[in-house]
Amino acid sequence: MSGLLSVFLHLLLLFKLAALVTFRHHHYDDLMRMLYKVHNECPYITRIYSIGRSVKGRHLYVLEFSDYPGIHEPLEPEVKYIGNMHGNEVLGRELLLQLSEFLCEEFRNGNQRITRLIEGTRIHILPSMNPDGYEVAAVQGPDSSGYLVGRNNANGVDLNRNFPDLNTYFYYNEKNGGPNHHLPLPDNWKSQVEPETQAVIQWIRSFNFVLSANLHGGAVVANYPYDKSLEHRVRGFRRTANTPTPDDKLFQKLAKVYSYAHGWMYQGWNCGDYFPDGITNGASWYSLSKGMQDFNYLHTNCFEITLELSCNKFPRQEELQREWLGNREALIQFLEQVHQGIKGMVLDENYNNLAGAVISISGINHDVTSGDHGDYFRLLLPGTYTVTASAPGFDPETVSVTVGPAEPKLVDFHLKRSVPQASPTRRVPNKGHGGRVFPKKVQPPATRKTKVEKKQPQ
After folding, report:
1. Is residue 219 helix, strand or coil?
2. Which stretch of DSSP H or E encloses residue 173?
3. What's the pLDDT score for residue 176?
4. Which is it for strands 78-83 and 122-126: parallel, antiparallel or unpaired?
5. Active site residue: 119, 308, 329, 397, which one?
6. What pLDDT was estimated at residue 423?
7. Residues 192/164, Cβ–Cβ less than 8 Å
C-alpha cells in the first residue's frame, strides 16, 4: 500500500511540475514577467541584466545562471544563447524561455546533471535580440503570409547583416600574413551598426565567452562558420562554396552534437532541404556577409554556431511543446560542450595574472587569449597538440598536451620576463696609447672631457 502511495505522490508531483510549464508565445511584457518569475524561483543561481535597448527603447534582457551570479570565477567558462535575432523567427525565443524555466526547476529538484552544469558553467541567455521586430511579427501571428514581416529591426535593418565585416581582413591576412584572431574594429564601427548590434558587440567584448549558439528559424540545420564565402562575386553575389575555418573539424563536431541530440535534425531531410547529418558550412549553403557567428570567431575568443530550428518561422502555439521536447536535450548537450579541450591560468614569475596572453596551437591558424583574470579556454578535439603561450615582454612557453574526450585538460603557464640582450661593446686597437684598447667612441681618461651623463628612461 505504501508503495502505491509513493507512486501516486510521485505522479502527482510530475503532474504539478508539468502544469507549471506553459507553452505559449510571449510578448515583450510577458517575456519580462517570465524572466523575473524564474529569477524569483531561483534567486541564488540567477541574475537578470540588460545589455542595452532596441530602437524603440525595449531592454535586451539577459538571464544568467551560475552558482555565483554576476561573478566570473577563474577557470569557469562562459557560454551564451541568443534568440530571436530575426523578429519573425520566434521559436528560439520560446525555447530559451522554456530552457530557463527547466534549468531552474531541475536545479531545485536536485538533478545532478543540471546542478553540475550550473555550478561549473556561467550561462547567459538572451531570449530576444530583436524585441521590436517580434512585436511586429506577433501582430500577424503564425497564419500570416507575410514571410519577412518583423524580420528586421525597427529601422528596417537585418541584424544578421549588420556586424563589421572582418572576414575580408582575415582572408587578406591569411594570404599575406597578419593577425588570425581578435581582428580590430574600424574606428567608426559604432556609427555603422544598429543599437541592438552595438549592444551585443559591447556585451561579447565584456565577457570572455567561449561557446555560443544563435537560434533562428526557417530551416532545420546546424550551421557553422564561415558564413561568408571566399569565392569572388558573380553578378553582385558571392558564389556558394565551402569556406572552412581553421577549426573546421571542431565546428563540425559542435554542430553534430546538437543535430544528433535533436529529435529529428540529424535525419537531414527537413523543410524540403537535405543536409547530411543535419549540419552545413554556412558559406556552402549560401554566402552571408557581416553575420554574427563569423564576427564572434574573428573578433573574440567565442566559437558560435547558428541553429535553424523550425520550417515555420512562427510556429503555432500548439506546436511549441513538441518543439521543446525535440530541442531540450540538444540545448543541454551543447552547453556541456564548453567543457572540452584545454584551459588554465597564465601567470608571471610572481604569480600575477597575465591578461591578453596569446594561446597558439601548432597547426591551427587561430589563437585565443587569456581573460582579465589570466584564465584561458581553448576548445579542441581529442588529440596531441603543441601549445604555446606568449605575452609582450615575456619569453614564450611551449608544451605538448594530450587532450582526451572528457573533461578539459588543465594546462597552466608561468611566463618569465624577457631579459633584454645587451649589445656587445665593440673594441678597437688604439696605437696612440701604448697599444691599450678602449671601447669605440670612448676617449682615454687623460683626454676625456668631464660631462654629465643623462640617464635614459627604461
Report:
1. strand
2. helix 167-176
3. 76
4. parallel
5. 308
6. 57
7. yes
Please state, in angstroms and rounded to a whole number, the distance separating the CA atoms of residues 346 and 354: 6
What pTM does this model have? 0.86
Regions of the chain with pLDDT less than 50: 1-2, 5-20, 234-236, 425-458
**Contact at 8 Å (CB) between 60 and 83?**
no
Identify the bridge partners of residue 223 per DSSP, sorted by sequence position: 280, 306
Cα(402)–Cα(379) distance, integer angstroms: 13
Residue type (1 letter), 445 = P
209-216 β-sheet, strand order: 46-53, 59-65, 122-126, 78-83, 209-216, 303-310, 219-224, 279-281
How many of the other CB atoms lie within 10 Å of CB of 270? 18
In this structure, which long-range contacts are made by residues 245-253, counting pairs with CB atoms below 8 Å and at least 24 apart in sequence? 245/297, 245/366, 246/180, 246/364, 246/365, 246/366, 247/297, 247/303, 247/364, 247/366, 247/379, 248/281, 249/381, 250/303, 250/379, 250/380, 250/381, 251/224, 251/225, 251/303, 251/305, 252/224, 252/279, 253/381
DSSP letter, residue 14: H
Show the cell assigned to 78.
562562459
Q: What is the DSSP string of 220-273?
A: EEEEES--S--SPEETTEEPP-----TTHHHHHHHHHHHHHHSSSGGG-EETTE
Judge residue 133's burial from the number of C-beta atoms within 10 Å of its C-beta, 0-12 exposed, 13-18 middle, 19 or more buried.
Answer: buried
Provide the residue count of the chain. 458
Bridge partners (DSSP) listed for residue 375: 345
Question: What digits encode the pLDDT tens for the residues 312-344?
Answer: 999 999 999 999 999 999 999 999 999 999 999
Residue entry with cell 611566463:
415
| Catalytic residue flag (residue 94) | no
| 202 backbone φψ class: left, alpha, beta (φ>0; ψ -120 to 50) | alpha
pLDDT at 145: 56
The one-letter amino acid code at 181 reads H
pLDDT for res 10: 43
- Between CA 79 and CA 210 the distance in angstroms is 6
